[in-house]
Amino acid sequence: MEPNLSWNGVCPGCGRGFSSEPGLSNHQRSCTKGKKRLGNVLGKAQDFWREKRRKVLDLAPDGSSIQQGPPGAPLPATAGTSLLNEVTQRKGKRARRQPKKVRDNQPEPLAALPPPSHQPDNPALSHPTLKQAPGAQPPPSSIRKLLRSTRNVFGLFRQYYAAHFPTHDPDERSTSKPSQASFRRLIDIVGSPSYKPENVSDTDWRRINKDLGRDNPEEEGWEDDDRAGAWVETPITINVPFHKDTANPGQAEFEAGTLFHRPLVSVIRERISNPANHPHLHYEPYKLFWQPRPDVEAVRVHGELYTSDAFIEAHRALQDSPPEPACDLPRVVVGVMFGSDGTQLTAFGDAQLAPVYLGIGNESKDRRAMPSCHAIEHVAYFEKLPTTFKTFAAEHIGGKGPNQAFTAHCQRELYHEQWSTILDDEFIEAYRHGIVIDCCDGVRRRFYPRIFTYSADYPEKVILASIRNLGRCPCPSCLITKDRIDKLGSPQDMQERQTLARVDDARRRSQISSARKIIYEKDYAVNSAAVERILKEESLVPTDNAFSKKLSPFDFNVFDMLVVDLMHEIELGVWKNLFIHLIRILDAVDEGLKYELDRRYREISAFGTNGVRRTTSNRSELKKMTANAYEDALLCAIPAFDGLLPEPHNGRLLKLLFELAHLHGLAKLEMHTDTTLDVLSEVTAKFAHAVKDFQDNTCSQFQTRELERERKARRKREKKKEKEKGKGKGSENENENDNEKEREEDKEKGQEEAGAPDGPGETEPESKGPRKPKEWNTNTYKFHRLGDYVSTIRRMGVTGSYSTQRFELEHKTSKMRYLRTSHRTIPLQLSQIETRERRIRRIRESVNRRPSIPEQPDVADDLQARYSTGKTQNYPIHVPSFLLARAGDPAVEDFSVKLQKHLHPRLLEALKKEADDRPGIWRTALNDAEMAPPEAKDPSSLIYLKNERIYHHKRTYFHFTTYDVKRGSDLINPGTLRHNVMLLDDGDTGHHYMYARVLGMYHANVLYTGPGSLDFETRRMDFLWVRWYEVVDPASSGWDGLDFLSFPPIEGPDAFGFVDPNDVVRGCHIVPDFNTGKRHDDGACLSGSVRDGDDYKRYYICRFSERDLLMRYHWGLGVGHLQAHEKVAISRTAKEQADSAASVPTVGHVVGNVPPAQSEIDLRADDAYDSDEPVLGMDDHGEVDLVDDSSGSDSDDDRDADDGEQDEGDIGDAEMGEKWTEEGGEDDEYFPGA
Questions:
Q1: What is the phi/psi pair of residue 290, to 5°?
Q2: Model confidence over 407-459: pLDDT tens digits?
Q3: Is the N end or the C end of the chain the one with fewer CB atoms within 10 Å?
Q4: Is 1069 helix (H, G, I), strand (E, B) or coil?
Q5: pLDDT tens figures, 1177-1216
Q6: Could you tell me if 594 and 810 are in contact, meaning their C-beta atoms sit under 8 angstroms apart?
Q7: 908: CB partners within 8 A, 6+ apart
Q8: Nearest Cα to 583, choosing from 629, 644, 627?
């Protein structure tokens, strides 16, 4: 780096000037005047200390002894209080309030249950604040009662309906979080004295690898000789019906392939008997309640499946049923959760797989979301109709190929035939009589499997429900017709969802049976008029449903297990449909608006560990848009679309986007209460109203047409149909009903209007042809499904428990295993690899004799602290030199004065805590401080920075308890766009938070010599240098739109300041208001330190960017947000506040090793955004000019012993998925940037 020729500095001791910083540093080492000045200051401080010690420990001036208070005696009412108030007041007029202290308790498990020997004989039948339903019947058994546990610090407690509390309590278990566990295990093996390399080199690993993946019943000596969970190959054959007008009418068997599957009973037995899974299984369901304070009524909490109404009802029904003969074993419900979806195994090629997954609802949803826990089992690889089926069908039809209806029917038959194989007689026997398993706690129990949920997308749901794809009644759960879907949110719609719910009753099964007789016995076509008259009214299909056939004797309703699917229905459904139509509107208004939209999305910063990701692509092109990409576009849609349409259309659009983002955030919460579900129900109705308003008053005003990519896709489909038609592919049914003919005629007419070629040999250029008019269609199943989220969550738990996204994470496992195959006989080789991995895990657990611990990346050294930052002093800043170089910069005006005033009360508080064991000394010191003259209380003469330096840290992690009582972390890096934080506002403005942009994270070694000083030791004080935001119209904050922020005038006294890191609530997502534009059109800036030339006039507070951030604004509704619970009590009487405060346990009750808020932490890099904004300590050309090269002369206590190593608060780059240079690394300047 070239030297800065304009640099100059002055020695504070002798006043000598220097033109280079190294010269000043070398001079200060030997400057006698400077050392003498510092010695005089320390001498005066020592004299003051000796006098204070003499007064306390020796005799008073009058000769009498000092009367000391007893240990722990309370301080005088005014002692210290007036001093703190005085030193925290600024000189002159003050407009900015200090942030309120944050109360952030560590997450802790639910209160421990009492052991059986300590349980009361007659526990209370109900909680005093829980209301009994009118007309409720008493429990059928006099043994079982309502039992409740005690409340934990967050007000959560459990309620059981049992004879006594369960002896096995997984909720009190906390798992550790090892870092680089695999590597450490390898080191332990290699470093063992018994390790010999020749034992490894002489082993035939190829043979062992082959044997581990083989399921051979003749083998002996394996850990799983009972072949628990072994794979089975079963040939699948279906009966294909050919109607009487074909060449060979009647039924014909077709061998569709081989199904690779695992017996369900064997899988369940293996999971329950596995020692690694036992500590996490809940054998007894319970209701979870939340009571933040004793003076409020408890509300129901919805989360896990084992706390849901469906699970509790199944458990009570099992306990009320007659037991097995001569069996008194405890009976336990096993919650079976299925999921399936086809996947492409390669980016190129046609290798596909249709796996079926199984999860156990007795385990936590967090474990099922972590692939490293192996909580999702692969139970089958489904087959599809092979390519030979068309040849087989053509031979029986008489030359013509099968039509779409016939092929779809055969595919459904194949699908349910495979499910009939999986739901074998052994599983049905277990469903009726249970499975006896010796659990790892030494208790033998009888387990009864019950199917609760099936997670799948819509095409697979219609097959599972045996209904038509997008038929007259498209919903698998109810019989509401398509013409009434637009009634979403109305009371009539909510009532019809209950009265018209689909039920698998005898009438429905009779209709299916009658239709199948017509097809298979009378040789009618599958879509003949006779079949249509029976099934069309309810959109049924003539398929014998495997679940209905096998489980209907147990009153199993197949439609109840088809739960909502947020990813496909909202992110890839309603929002994707709306987003594409908004691009059509922009294209109709001005094509340039699409480019402006792309620019705005590219400028929006990333946020959160699992929140908004930054994009570098053009959103309007819709290329490679995954569900995550659509979600990110929704969370930041309001700033991106604001102002692109003229008013009043812009206002309607923002309202629509606000309600949709709000609905999406609430529907995706990992913990709900009855209150938040009421809010979700209200938001759903508001969204439906906003949709209708936008359709009627905005969409009708624009002539929208299909996008170019839509036109090309349509032409491609049309050409494919024409090609098939040219080959003579037609209907197998010559007497096809009139409705089908009319539909075909309409399709052909639409093709001619779209510009289809006139002759069979003519082709149309790909880039030519008109674009058809296109409207926003909300008359869809996915839009209709939004009304089922509240009822589904109340019955089955939160959507994250059964989201298809959790099961599709297992697709990565299949794809990784596919790379190890020969790409032939894929299901066979995948089943062998799965068996091999499962056996290796069991062998490892058997050898270690302890459960395997899932590997998780470290987020920081200590999640229990409020924040984590570096410990080293590798990057010092000489404060006088820095201020001299920045003379005239408004950002550093009164820098030292503000810093001293900020540190003064914090130092007094720190000294006060240190002196708790010496109350007499502290009391005398406070008395001396009260009697000290005003000039003795001036922080500028009491606080000294050792060596006049502060030390910079690149990154800081702020830890907080999330709304669902887990530990979350936010990365704050002033060198990137992750630099905004929020603090509690203690005022009455109507807005609960204050906001700041972090310019730098520092620490200083501070010496305090004023009243209240106890010694002359330096103390480390961490602080943030921030630039404050101001809330625009805080009184209008609410749920009608996003809040706005703006920067106060940069030359104002409260534009910059310092913050205690402990006062930070968490990071926040602040996005520019692109519509209002930048504050300075010419880009001129007043401060070279913060480069305010890039400031926008206003900023959005994006509250939807993360679910915990969303719940921060639902004040008082987040279970883990203790500070919000206290705020609610402010409106009550003083006595109620005191009672509430007394009932809350003390802060600091910590349970170690609490898992983070997200199951798999994935911090993303900030796309090398470090150089876009300035940094403190850099000149206008980006050169570092204030590095203190004299740091090498510091004493041993100034620098850490591990000098030059990575800060202890920083995380390994490989584990975090971030590059050091992208987060302000070694190539980056180490001063604060924006």
A1: -125, 125
A2: 999 999 999 999 999 999 999 999 999 999 999 989 999 999 999 999 999 99
A3: N
A4: coil
A5: 333 333 333 333 333 333 333 333 333 333 333 333 333 3
A6: no
A7: 80, 83, 84, 87, 1012
A8: 644
